[in-house]
Structures are given as structure tokens and as C-alpha cells.
């Protein structure tokens, strides 16, 4: 899904993984898609496996390499509600929040007076992981064939089967995740940038434009259906099946 949204390279910090995941990551490393870094940091966990060190290492190692760095966990996705890529989203954030067009059109002199944005922060909501999917709840415009349903359930494609989230969308700086310009970040944090190298702006992206889908097993009091990821359904399903076929000894 992140590839569809615009990610070009991934950095993975490996404290402990299964043989199957290791096999997949090795193949992706050969493809040049992933960098896997050994991460044997913790002694008594060191604040959840050295995650502060990991996020800052990722930012600094990608300076002058990546224009943007996206900070998410493996069970999270930043999903635009109306756009099809992160860059489309950033380029069209409403003016009352921040005009970010200077980032996308740096050669335009008329835009150079705009304040530089260092971080785009996204609010988060928990998506309930369920053992079953009630396909009758899916709107007709996103219909799935019997074969698609079978494969989605067989391979446990959470992104194409889990559409109920908690009504709560967490407030600013509480479980937010973010996209940064790495050269502007001095100290990154888990949920927001702690400090910048210059007076950069932080944009809290309106949750009507995008939210973080955080998939987890839990029992919320009230659920709402969130279908925004289904605009990627055909493209995402095809890519997932392609990867399953690439690793037949794992996905069978």
C-alpha cells in the first residue's frame, strides 16, 4: 500500500523477525527496495526497543537522499481520503491550514516567501482486527468477486477486509504519525518532530483529508465504517496477489 501511495524506499530496523519475514526482506533488499538494519539495541527494552534512536537514525541517513521521509509502524498506513498519493495530498492541502505549494514548485519565485513546512502530522484511529468480514456491508461500488473474497480471507489481507474503526480520532500529538523533510529535522520523535534545525512550520493535516489507519485487536465501544482505502482496491489486490505468487513457499 505504501508503494501505491508513493514510497520509493523502506528502512527496516530488525530487532527480531521470523524466517519467513527474513526471506521476504532479503528479496526486497536484492531489489533495492528495502534497507534492513540490525537493531540489537535493547537491554531491558530501552524505551521500547530503542525506537527514538531508530527514527532519528532514519531521518539523518536519508538527508540529501529522500525529499520526504514517512514515519509509520508496520501496522499503520497514512491513507488520504480524497487523493491517490501522498504528494497529491500535500500539494492540495487547503490554504487555511498551510499553502505547501512552494514545496512542489520550488522554482516559482512567487512562492518563495511562503514559510517552509518541516512536518505534516496525521491524526490516528484504531481499526478493529476481526477474524471474519461481513462482505454484505461493503458498498456495491466496491464489490468483490468470490475469488477475491476467498484470497483476501486466505492470505489475511487486513487492508482489504477490515473497515471498521473506533469512532475516536486521536487528538494532536497523541498517536499521530508524520511526513517530514529530513534536512529540516533536528530531533525526531515517535509521534511528532521534537525540534527543527530552522524555524519550520508544522501542519496538522485535517482528518477530513487523511488519517492514520492503525490496525489492532481491541474492543471499542462504538465503531464507524471507513471505506477510504477501497478506492485503491483493484490496484492493491493485484499487488498483494503478485507478492503472494512471488513467495509461494510462504503464501500457500
From TrEMBL:
Topology term for the membrane: Single-pass membrane protein
Pfam family, one: Glyco_transf_92
GO cellular component: cytoplasm; membrane
EC main group: transferase
GO molecular function, one term: glycosyltransferase activity
Entry EC no(s): 2.4.1.-
Cellular compartments annotated: Membrane
Main location: membrane
Kinase recorded as keyword: no
Protein family per UniProt: Belongs to the glycosyltransferase 92 family.
Name of the protein described by the UniProt record: Glycosyltransferase family 92 protein
Amino acid at each position: 500500500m505504501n508503494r501505491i501511495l508513493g514510497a520509493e524506499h523502506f528502512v527496516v530496523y530488525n530487532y527480531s523477525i521470523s524466517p519467513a519475514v527474513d526471506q521476504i526482506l532479503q528479496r526486497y533488499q536484492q531489489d533495492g527496495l528495502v534497507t534492513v538494519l540490525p537493531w540489537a539495541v535493547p537491554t531491558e527494552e530501552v524505551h521500547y526497543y530503542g525506537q527514538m534512536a531508530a527514527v532519528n537514525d532514519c531521518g539523518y541517513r536519508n538527508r540529501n537522499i529522500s525529499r520526504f521521509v514517512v514515519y509509520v509502524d508496520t501496522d499503520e498506513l497514512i491513507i488520504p481520503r480524497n487523493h491517490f498519493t501522498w504528494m497529491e495530498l500535500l500539494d492540495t492541502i487547503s490554504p487555511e491550514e498551510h499553502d505547501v505549494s512552494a514545496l512542489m514548485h520550488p522554482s516559482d519565485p512567487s512562492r518563495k516567501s511562503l514559510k517552509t513546512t518541516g512536518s505534516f502530522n496525521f491524526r490516528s484511529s484504531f481499526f478493529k482486527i476481526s477474524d471474519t468480514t461481513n462482505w454484505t456491508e461493503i458498498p456495491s461500488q466496491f464489490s468483490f468477486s468470490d475469488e477475491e473474497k476467498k484470497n483476501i480471507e486466505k492470505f489475511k489481507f487486513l487492508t482489504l477486509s477490515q473497515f471498521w474503526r473506533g469512532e475516536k480520532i486521536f487528538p494532536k500529538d497523541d498517536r499521530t504519525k508524520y511526513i517530514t523533510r529530513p534536512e529540516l529535522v533536528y530531533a525526531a520523535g515517535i509521534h511528532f518532530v521534537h525540534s527543527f534545525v530552522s524555524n519550520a512550520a508544522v501542519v496538522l493535516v485535517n482528518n477530513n483529508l487523511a488519517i492514520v489507519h492503525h490496525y489492532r485487536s481491541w474492543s471499542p465501544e462504538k465503531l464507524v465504517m471507513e471505506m477510504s482505502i477501497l478506492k485503491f482496491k483493484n490496484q492493491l489486490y493485484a499487488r498483494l496477489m503478485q507478492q503472494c505468487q512471488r513467495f509461494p513457499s510462504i503464501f500457500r
